[in-house]
Design brief:
five-stranded mixed β-sheet; alpha+beta; globular
Length: 138
């Protein structure tokens, strides 16, 4: 974990507690299907705002699974590119998703950190850059 950062499982919740109370979604199985072998989580706000399709997107045949796969494939691409250029545990990556019948370009952030505070087992958390900034200790 980055020095000076709060745990990414907000309010000092364990990762499991964050998932149980709905602050994060465990998307590890979908991530495993595309080749990511460590646990992957997504904040509820990214899930609700971007992975859950709105009515117009559903009318165009989109569903949560297809939108999640778009996000994960983009992440996987940027993980591979980033690993060659940089050793940071943060990766910003753009994703295009439909909202309100229009394609929207959004910026997401992947944080490689511990599965639980004080543990060595890694995981990835996908969030918005704003959520990451809000979790910094001032």
């Amino acid at each position: 974990m980055r020095k000076g950062a709060k745990p990414l499982s907000e309010d000092n919740d364990s990762r499991q507690e964050a998932v149980e109370v709905g602050k994060q979604k465990d998307i590890s199985e979908a991530a495993k299907d595309i080749g990511l072998l460590i646990p992957v989580f997504m904040t509820a706000s990214v899930w609700d705002e971007w992975v859950t399709p709105d009515q117009k997107s559903m009318e165009q045949g989109e569903d949560q699974k297809s939108r999640l796969i778009v996000v994960l494939h983009k992440l996987l691409y940027f993980l591979r590119v980033h690993r060659q250029e940089n050793r940071s545990n943060l990766i910003y990556f753009p994703v295009s998703l439909n909202k309100g019948g229009e394609s929207k370009d959004i910026q997401l952030l992947s944080h490689l950190g511990p599965l639980e505070v004080g543990e060595d087992k890694p995981c990835i958390t996908i969030m918005s850059p704003e959520e990451y900034e809000d979790n910094k200790v001032n």
